[in-house]
Amino acid sequence: MKYIILLIISLFIIGCGNGSNNNTEIKVENEPYFYQQWYLDINEAFYLENGINSEAHIHPSDLLTQLSGDGIKIAVIDDGLDVTHEDLQGTITNTYDVASKTSNVTHNNPTDSHGTAVTGIIGSSINSKGIAGIAHKSEIIFLKYKEPLDDNNTIELFNKAEEFGADIINCSWGTYSVSDGVKDKIVDLAINGRGGKGTIIVFAVGNHNRDMGNDESAIPEVISVGATDSENLRAWYSNYGNYLDVLAPGGYYNGITTLDPMGSDGIASLDENYLLYDDFNSFVGTSASAPIVSGIIALMLERDSNLTRVEVENILKDSSDKIGNVAYINSRNDYYGYGKVNLSKIIERVDTFNN
Amino acid sequence: MENFLKHIFLIILLIIQVCFANDNYYYQNNNKVLLEPSISIARDSSSIDYYTNEKGIVLGVTDTLIVKFKYERNLNNYLNEFNLTLIKRLGNGLYLLKVENKNLTIDISNKLTQKVDIKYAHPNFIKNIIKR
To answer: How far is A209 from chain B (nearest CA, A)?
Structure first.
């Protein structure tokens, strides 16, 4: 009799457990603002209402549910972060401020928001609160720069990323004048980081509709990312040049929905914790495109952690969609690089890479 | 006679200028990049001199420089030769050094660049970060 009662109680507990799991099933679609993350996936009603080209997203298929960047470390070097944000809880694993040499990476000014917006695109949790980060289970290392920044501190930030074990480093900034010392550090990491497989360093190319020049993004060993708009064309502001690799959504008429520092901090005008696509201060630019690509690379490394930096770069280039009206010669041109990233094709290529 | 003295004076003045002028360039990727002294709105400290390079980028120069050695055995010799102080090692063969006087930072960087055992040297430039 005792065993029968125990069996009934066990079945009851198991039953309750299953029910609970069903109620909290992880779905990006459950995020209240996922419908307006047009850069990730198509929502037909939203696309129609806002005149968005049906191909403007990154073609995720169901990969944003299958993959999450689990176990991949992404360093974000930026101006500060609201570590208390409701959509980043459990995501941030290490922080460092190069100015104070402490772990306090809070934004310097109440109206600063850039680092929080960039980080949100990569790492926002699936918690039914706001948006879906592309690599929502990745571990974010946040490294705060100071403004202006000297070469010594720039090198220190990359050294910190290495020390914290970053697989990917996202830089949504640049100087148009990279010094030899900084370039050397970046190239060294790209070649020798990740135990010799190469750390993947992603730079935004900039928003001045000009040649990349002697910018950090023009270092051949980094992945340089330009922007597309909601018409699925190169955004007019996106910089160009010989070393442009790929494009990803950066928006223009429709912004990139992401995080804003909580409460009265930040710049959001519609929802104080989120920068929505139609906010007066919406997030637009190659700063948004770079973390989309960093997130995609996290999914690639989750699928195959043995990929080298060179292999990641080649897969990105080979799998990109040749959009736009500029001819591609040997698969690239200076305005679109190798084309716009396509997540489904990328993961398909990763899966077949070793076969 | 008066004209002759005037010419002599001008030639002496020119020689003095050439001897004591600071370098108006630095090396990047083994190429000379020209610098113009600049007054920048970012200027917030007299410990920084601001210049604009030929691409129009404003660069701050302090009393520190970055040097990359091919072989490090002469590090101490160069510290003595140029009155430099070692602040820290930044990486493999890469050092942050302090110059006695910030007016000499560019000149010493250029002189170090010309040494056979040095890969490159440049001021520890301060730059504006452009968010994108």
So the answer is: 12
* Contact call for residues A83 and A95 (beta carbons, < 8 A): yes
ipTM: 0.87
For residue B40, the chain A residues in CB contact (below 8 A) are: none
For residue A214, give the nearest of B55, B62, B119 by CB distance: B55
Report yes or no on B46 lying in a domain.
yes
Name chain B contacts of A287, Cβ cutoff 8 Å: 131-132
Split at pLDDT 50, 70, 90, the class of B23 is confident
Task: Say whether residue B62 is in contact with chain A using an 8 A CB cutoff.
Answer: yes
- In a domain? residue B13: no
Instruction: Kindly identify which residue of chain B lies nearest to residue A239, measuring between CA atoms.
Output: B132
- Mean pLDDT score of chain B, rounded to an integer? 87
User: Per CATH, the architecture of A33-353 is what?
Assistant: 3-Layer(aba) Sandwich (3.40)
Closest chain A residue by Cα to residue B97: A152
Q: Number of structural domains, chain B?
A: 1
**pTM metric for this prediction:** 0.90
Q: Is B94 inside any structural domain?
A: yes
Q: What ranges do the domains of chain A cover? A: 33-353
Q: Residue B19: pLDDT above 50?
A: no
What are the pLDDT digits (tens) for A222-257?
999 999 999 999 999 999 999 999 999 999 999 999
Q: Write the CATH number for B59.
A: 3.30.70
Look at residue A269 in the predicted model and tell me its pLDDT: 96
Domain assignment present for residue B12? The answer is no
B43 part of contact set with chain A, CB < 8 Å: no
- Cis check for the bond before B37: say yes or no (omega within 30 of 0): no
Separation in Å, CA of A286 to nearest CA in chain B: 6
The half-sphere exposure of A6 on its side-chain side, counting CA atoms within 13 A, is: 3
B48 touches chain A (CB under 8 A): no
Range of the domain at B55: 23-127
**Does A287 touch chain B if contact means CB atoms closer than 8 Å?**
yes
Inform me whether the C-beta atom of residue A100 falls under 8 Å from chain B C-beta atoms: no
